[in-house]
Write a structure and sequence with these properties.
The protein is an all-beta fold. The chain is built from no helices and 47 strands.
Length: 652
């Protein structure tokens, strides 16, 4: 019941254009839920909306999400630009303020994205694309928003290079010690734990090796020779090592013509920890050919199909790895509907952990094909992306679905949509926009609606030919019709760990602030958050560190200072007792507290609310003034504000 290998992983040689960055809000945590529509009713695909120039936006006519046009016919002399050839490529930099794009001729570029203004580049209709000094074989760092890792094997240099897009400096990192070439686009594994790429002689589907390097300690390298079963030249005893299919079944054979040895089709890196996803051809463990290598334990897990011991029937579809979970687009539990997915343990891919995105019944008991039984509809595929799991392992998975055959009528839910699926067993699916990427019957690879989620979980970078309405493409481009790139807004709000600024007589370590100077008991110490709530709903939140100090914390607008009376909407904490003060005026809300209690000051529908451990204590009669920041005024030496967070439509 799995999908064919032809719609398995994307091409290894993907090139990508990257868009530049502004300084980010620090420590953003991807959301666990969204406010988008979650109904499972049929939503017909509307005509592709009319578009303006680059940096104009529209609202999806069905679901309402904002969609920004990133490229148009004037961006690259009329050439098509896509984000990447799949969902598991890092097309967003570490702080979601720059993107990567690619053309059809092996070049890649980067361009800034400003989440506060919802614009790219300089905000004009003709933003400038920035091109690094190498071709499309590069990927963003997961940690440093300015860093790119590139694979090179020409001009006398082979291996990985680290490039800083701000000062435009390059640092050579290393190559396989045996001199084998590294000709493919690299992937970043986890939070820059490893950089890896397929290596050795061959081409896609036949590469024999994987070269990995620790960018934090470049002398720490690993060369995995799959056919030889060796790690850095030493024979492995791993019983799950992927091996060649020596007796291929002509009905399920995944070997290319003339291929007799297992080879690498593509690789991808997990969002968190250190799992490397690998897709093989000519393997002996399953038609999907998908496996995971744990770079910490240096062991393999193989996704076996139903014809192999311990396998299951849910092996099909594209896949990606979050932080602690692997997902693949398996179809429904019944196997009669292409919608649906499963999560798995990356260290033990069989059996299934949980079915997610289980589809509702087909409309009117319909069928996609009159030659098969009713209620059978295997008509579409998906690309998945899960980089938001790096800051939140329970974050939803992004899917961009595309039709591969004639669409059923009425159209089932989620068809040709940008959606996100919860992995908590709730079967919740958030629906953001139609991708206008696939024509149904006759779909080609490049109109599959490739989309990648940003690390903060707020945005999706989408490549779409917009139902063929963008005009003719240049000779040699991806498709006869142009493809452009778009940013789809998934959430208008962000949650971030506070970055403290304007610090007086205090020390900040991460999001924790401690009074370390001045007079004990005086209002001569404090700081404000670098981030600010620009408009709309939002909140600041912090955790009590100790119950024997005196300080104020809450929302403020205006110039920074250390005065208790300068906190517009705040809590006053004094040796285990707390109340509410607004510019030094007592407002009630008396309560007690102990270490570990969480206090929040929130703006909800224009009103300021005060909460302790989620319980409402008081609603203010005063109106908030924007922009609003977290403001802490510290009295007692050693007073601390722990784990401070700010959420909303953030700017700096």
């Amino acid at each position: 019941m799995g999908m064919s290998r032809a719609i398995g992983r994307v091409l290894m040689m993907s090139g990508v254009l990257v868009l530049g960055q502004l300084q980010p809000a620090a420590g953003q945590t991807a959301p666990s839920t969204y406010s988008a529509y979650t109904g499972t009713d049929s939503k017909p695909i509307p005509s592709a909306p009319l578009l303006g120039a680059v940096n104009t936006s529209i609202n999806d006519p069905t679901f309402g999400s904002r969609i920004l046009r990133v490229t148009d016919q004037n961006t690259l002399a009329g050439g098509s630009l896509i984000s990447a050839e799949g969902g598991f490529f890092r097309t967003w930099n570490a702080n979601s303020t720059a993107i990567k794009l690619q053309d059809a001729h092996g070049s890649a570029y980067w361009l800034e994205f400003n989440p506060a203004t919802f614009k790219v580049g300089d905000g004009s209709s003709t933003p400038v694309l920035h091109q690094p000094p190498f071709d499309s074989r590069w990927i963003w760092s997961a940690v440093n928003a300015d860093v790119i890792y590139a694979a090179r094997y020409w001009s006398g240099q082979n291996g990985f290079t680290k490039y800083n897009k701000v000062d435009q400096t390059s640092t050579y990192l290393g190559a396989p010690s045996n001199g084998d070439r590294v000709p493919t686009e690299p992937v970043v594994v986890g939070m820059d734990k490893w950089v890896c790429a397929a290596a050795g002689l061959g081409q896609q589907n036949t590469y024999p090796e994987i070269f990995c390097l620790d960018p934090n300690n470049p002398s720490n390298t690993l060369l995995i020779n799959v056919p030889a079963k060796t790690l850095n030249g030493v024979l492995s005893s791993d019983p799950n090592w992927p091996t060649t299919d020596t007796n291929p079944d002509p009905n399920t054979n995944t070997c290319d013509t003339g291929q007799t040895v297992i080879g690498i089709h593509s690789i991808d890196g997990s969002a968190g920890n250190a799992w490397l996803g690998v897709s093989f051809h000519c393997d002996d463990f399953g038609r999907g050919g998908n496996a995971v290598f744990n770079l910490t334990t240096r062991t393999w897990s193989l996704l076996r199909d139903q014809d192999h011991s311990g396998g299951d029937v849910y092996w099909g579809g594209h896949n990606t790895i979050g932080d602690g979970k692997f997902v693949n687009g398996s179809g429904s539990i019944s196997g009669r509907d292409s919608r649906g997915a499963v999560t798995r343990n990356p260290d033990g891919l069989n059996p299934v952990l949980r079915h997610i995105m289980e589809p509702p019944a087909l409309p009117n008991n319909g069928s996609c094909d009159p030659d098969v039984a009713p209620n059978y509809c295997w008509y579409d595929g998906e690309h998945s992306s899960w980089f938001n799991a790096a800051t939140n392992p329970n974050a939803p998975v992004l899917f961009s679905r595309y039709s591969t055959q004639t669409r059923p009528s009425p159209l089932p839910a989620w068809s040709d949509e940008i959606i996100a699926a919860a992995t908590d067993g709730s079967n919740t699916v958030w629906r953001f926009a139609h991708n206008h990427a696939s024509p149904g019957e006759g779909a080609q690879f490049y109109n599959q609606g490739f989309a990648q989620i940003s690390p903060d979980g707020r945005w999706a970078l989408l490549a779409s030919y917009w139902d063929g309405t963008l005009g003719d493409s240049n000779p040699g481009d991806f498709l006869p019709k142009r493809i452009d790139t778009f940013i789809v807004e998934l959430s208008s709000t962000a949650t971030a760990s506070v970055a403290w600024t304007d610090i007086v007589n205090a020390t900040a370590i991460g999001s924790t602030l401690t009074k370390t100077g001045g007079c004990s008991g005086c209002d001569d110490a404090g700081a404000i958050s670098q981030q600010q709530i620009a408009s709309g709903d939002g909140y600041v939140e912090f955790t009590i560190g100790e119950a024997n100090t005196f300080w104020f914390g809450g929302l403020s607008h205006g110039t920074p200072g250390t005065s208790y009376a300068g906190v517009d909407f705040g809590f006053r904490f004094s040796s285990g007792a707390a109340d509410i003060q607004e510019n030094g005026v007592y407002k009630g809300g008396d309560t007690t507290y102990v270490a570990g209690d969480v206090f929040r000051v929130a703006i909800v529908n224009g009103q300021v609310q005060y909460k302790k451990n989620g319980v409402l204590l008081y609603t203010s009669a005063g109106a908030p003034i924007y922009p609003a920041r977290l403001d802490a005024a510290l009295g007692t030496l050693g007073a601390t504000v722990h784990d401070a967070k700010i959420s909303g439509q953030l700017s700096q």
